[in-house]
Amino acid sequence: MKRRNIHIFLLSIFLVQTFFLGATTGEVLPISHNAGLRGSSHTLHYKQRQLLYYTDHHGSRGVTVTAAGSLVFENPRLRSAYTALQAWKRAMVSDPWDQTSNWVGSDVCKYTGVFCAQAPDDPSVQTVAGIDLNHADIAGFLPEELGLLLDIALFHINSNRFCGKVPKSFNKLKLLFELDLSNNRFAGEFPDVVLQLPALKFLDLRFNEFEGKVPKELFDKDLDAIFINHNRFSFQLPDNFGKSPVSVIVLANNNFHGCVPASLGNMSKNLNELVLAHNGFHSCLPKEIGMLKNVRLFDVSHNRVVGELPKEIVEMESLEQLNVAHNMLRGTIPEGQELLAEKAKAENLFAMQIGFV
């Protein structure tokens, strides 16, 4: 699946009103530190590092936001955004490329990585619609104040060093369409707060330290893409796995186990790519994979799958890449699929990898 250009997609998100709910505003306060955080810059830095690990029962890490009376904002929503972004800046302990050095003053729409657009419920109001701090190598955590970004549609922070957990306040982001937290240092259980995001279509949690079970409710959500590979999830895929309407789902490099569920045959309408590699799946491949008429990529390599390669694979008429290597399969490639492989190879489109090791 090709990733959309954030600038073009951002504007299209706000033009398509059907994806959005009404946004609300709230009065906010400007930024200051608690009395316990006042002191030398060295002490402040040390305190901030401590805040990465210690929270109270509300999830707060001690950051308080207050306002300078001299600041003037175009509207209350930008004032709220200022509060959220300043709290986040206080929660960053390392910004080696100075991506947030211009996060100063009331014009938040000029902050690096911050994108504004017309509010979906009121075109006369300018609001923060997206965050893109990809590949910034910033270290820190996500403060609860980010829940003030009520109009945000895109939140992209891949390839940084953010740690801790996803704030519970994210449940207020009712317009959030794309959430990309990949390649960071988030840990703990699956962030259930993403299940409370009604507009979410794209979820990317790959390359983190999440662990435990993935809630079965994830596969009931109306998502287009799920990337949760390269974590420490460990459980058996639930029976409702096949209810997911995704076009792409990547579960590789975890510890999923049990059978590859036969319910995946119900995903035939939308599914284009399914990657289950490097897990602990066992038993046989279900014959229902033949129902996946639109799948171009199917990868179940490096598991413990046994038995015959289903002859129904020949019915996967859109298949371009099939990888079942490093399992315990036996038999031969079904004749029809072998012909498809030769044809596709000639067109330099197909990578067939069969392994019985």
TrEMBL record:
<keyword id="KW-0379">Hydroxylation</keyword>
<feature type="domain" description="Leucine-rich repeat-containing N-terminal plant-type">
    <location>
        <begin position="83"/>
        <end position="116"/>
    </location>
</feature>
<dbReference type="GO" id="GO:0071555">
    <property type="term" value="P:cell wall organization"/>
</dbReference>
<dbReference type="Pfam" id="PF08263">
    <property type="entry name" value="LRRNT_2"/>
</dbReference>
<feature type="signal peptide">
    <location>
        <begin position="1"/>
        <end position="26"/>
    </location>
</feature>
<keyword id="KW-0325">Glycoprotein</keyword>
<keyword id="KW-0964">Secreted</keyword>
<dbReference type="InterPro" id="IPR032675">
    <property type="entry name" value="LRR_dom_sf"/>
</dbReference>
<keyword id="KW-0961">Cell wall biogenesis/degradation</keyword>
<dbReference type="InterPro" id="IPR013210">
    <property type="entry name" value="LRR_N_plant-typ"/>
</dbReference>
<keyword id="KW-0732">Signal</keyword>
<keyword id="KW-0433">Leucine-rich repeat</keyword>
<dbReference type="InterPro" id="IPR051582">
    <property type="entry name" value="LRR_extensin-like_regulator"/>
</dbReference>
<keyword id="KW-0134">Cell wall</keyword>
<dbReference type="InterPro" id="IPR001611">
    <property type="entry name" value="Leu-rich_rpt"/>
</dbReference>
<protein>
    <recommendedName>
        <fullName>Cell wall hydroxyproline-rich glycoprotein</fullName>
    </recommendedName>
</protein>
<dbReference type="Pfam" id="PF00560">
    <property type="entry name" value="LRR_1"/>
</dbReference>
<keyword id="KW-0677">Repeat</keyword>
